[in-house]
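Methods — Computational structure assignment.
A single polypeptide chain was analysed. Its primary sequence is given first, followed by the predicted tertiary structure written as structure tokens.
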Amino acid sequence: MKTNACPTVPTTRYAAARRPPDTVTTVAGQEHPGTDAAPTAEHGRLGLALILVAAFMVVLDFSIVNVALSSIQRELGVSAATVQWVVTGYAIAFGGLLILGGRAGDLYGRRRLFLAGIAVFTAASLAGGLARDPVLLIASRVMQGGGAAMVAPAALSLITTGFPEGPRRTRALGLYGATASVGFVAGQVLGGVLVEFLSWRSVFLVNVPVGLATLLLAPRTLRESRSPRTGRRLDTSGALLITLAVGALVFAVSRGGGTGIGSADVLVPLALSALAAAAFAANEHHHADPLMQPALLRLHGLRNAGVLMLLLGLWNGGEMLVLSVYLQQVLHMSPLAAGLTIAPQGVVGLATGLLGARLARRLGIQKVLVVTGVAATIGFAALTRLPGSGGSHLPLAAVMLVGCGTAGMAFGSMVTATAGVADRDQGLVGGVINTSRQLGAAIGAALLPAVADAVDRTRHVSMAVGDRAAMFAGLAAAGLATLVATNAWRRSRHDGVARCAPRA
């Protein structure tokens, strides 16, 4: 009896790394140009460590300032609406410029853009720490966001172009995802320590020595990584349009929690974002060298990863804010104690990232996404039963599950997004992935607290009820992400079976 043997199809697509350069790489059944002709040389351990430190610093600064807002407001004598621009200004610049930063790194050099971003970020941190005027402080935060938008995609693409696709890249991406997860949580803890024992200015000044050390060491430890520029140039009009579209959207979402969805502060920038996005699509269709290649948009891996990162950012950004307020106002913890209570989420996230490559080898990257999505969903289901008083360990167990889900989903999304993509487009992919997460974080930071406030106002009951309702929104996001990951896993299995089916 004749049988049709078929090898197991790896979901991580490691085989792509063994293909010769300038060939066509197949991802999810679609063709896309393979790696660049230049051979890949790995960064050393110190180089990878510098990339991870820079990524940690950028993510840390997204959350570390939240703890200092009250102190900034008191010392500078500004309104709550004004001090909120310290957060909003950073978010708009960071989210709006990520895609431009990613493509600029591809064309002009990823190490060069990485160093330029660190320099801008460090100078802005110094200016923010010394600011005596709210206008200067907000301007420095916008400048910080611009520097972060150069660093984040450059850091990710330095990893994906500095390590060949396969187990070593997966391990490095696991460390990158773990670092980002720890950075977001560490901001809550470190911000509380610095504000309580030093001053709000220290949350900015702490970046300066780290940035200077990176600027000194990076030129010696990181290779330059740049795509061939023959016949290629930056799509300036497309870059401006997508920056305007994303920046306006982030602004609208950031304002939505305070002014309401129907306010002019939300509707006008939303309309502007939609117009800019439509103009961007038209520009890309007719441009000879578009910012976003159509072939990239057809990649299932990149599309799924973008959706997953958007949902991940939504639950992560909103959960942190709601839990911080809940622990302080319902359980009456100090800011430092609240940060330490959330800290296990970062610790578990770090462990998940460190074990990510091993999990991917055992389960396949698609299964990792499903398992970690389920973990986040269970964690949020537990958080929907937040206690109205102290004495319960439920939040601790729940945040640990959410931490596992967040880090695993981030790691798996980055692996699937960058797999099979040519080196010349890795910076752009890094920009797209980071933009998705930042958009999600902006939506979550506005949506989940708004849900909590709305329930508290209408029900006139304990604040914990509103916080539980906000966690239901996080549960919905985590559940939807799990469904997307499950569908991608089933699709990969179906594609594997289809490739192995006997021909007539």
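Note: The CA atoms of residues 42 and 162 lie 5 Å apart.
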